[in-house]
Amino acid sequence: MISLRYGTNPHQAEAFIELPDPSPLKILNGAPGFINMLDALTSWQLVRELKEATGKASAASYKHVSPAGAAIAKPIDEAFKESQFLKTTDFSPVASAYVRARGGDRLCSFGDALAVSDTVDVSLAQFLKTEVSDLIIAPGYEPEALEILKKKKKGGFVILEIDYDFMPEGLESRELFGIGLQQTRNSRLITKADLANVVSDNKEISAETLETLLVAAISLKYTQSNSISVAYDGQIVGIGAGQQSRIHCTRLACDKADKWFLQRHPKVRGLQFKEGTKKVDKTNLIDQFLLWDSLSATEEAMMLQNFDTRPDPITREERVEWNRQYKDICLGSDAFIPFRDNIDRASRSNIQHVVETGGSLRTEYIVQAVNEYNMTLTHTGIRSFLH
Fold first, then answer.
1. Annotated catalytic, 374?
2. Is residue 177 part of a domain?
3. Out of 28, 57, 110, 203, which could bridge 198 as a Cys pair, Cβ 3.0 to 4.6 Å?
4. Is 64 a catalytic site residue?
């Protein structure tokens, strides 16, 4: 048994973790709290499953037991570099996976717990040096990378090492309000074979898009339900988590995705911030800039104080034209889609591929809606609720 800093809140003073023998987990640095461990152990399962499904280094950025972002390793283009304030695109595979995962929602990734499927190298450690993050979990660390990370947060950065081959079996238990609950662990892995049932008229799905659909589907397995994901080019660009209505999840995920694509717009990349503006403040200012039409006069005046020149807002027509240029955007649902309003909202965000459980009483209407928009629709037959 290992003591934690505290439970979910500081006044919940007694908190512990119990480890099996032999233990698959080591605390190499720092003192984790209860939420830290929930984020770490949930995010680790996501990146491990992504690695198994795609064969590529995978990463996730977690906040409050749901992913802010998740991604597989792929090259980083110039637009991503500029929109994320990166100094280079020269990253190792494991570093590129995390840079892309964190860049999926940089507002929500602030102060995250991160997981990577591969050994942490110097490339990733150097990137993390200046990022606001609380914890990392990985199957191993290069010695130099470990020394770099141990200096983070004045030595308080939590570093966890987990055995890649560890896989618990059988029942899992929890206690709620003094009452014990048990269930079979959700060990059903999602693979490419689960994406074979394409029920739409349009069945054209490239190999790269198939990978992105896997990212969308697997990420939902480790997101608090109800949940919807939007993915592009092997990374999550929008998550709607924990809503009681699926359409609200869809609106959240699509709104976040719309913003992600607009971050790449020339008017955003060309914003002239006052000298000395910190990256975190630039992130918040861009978020406000993309909401220009809804700002009050006071909010607009406060925002304008941070720019050397007055920004030129992106018009509604420019927004639509810009987002329409992106191809093979995917939407995933952790359970069946009950009403076509989800598909109608997805179409406004230029979604072209949908993956869901299938089997709704209204499935024929969902298929009809997808066909109207010439999307593809894949049924996995797998529900992926998480509570």
1. no
2. no
3. 203
4. yes
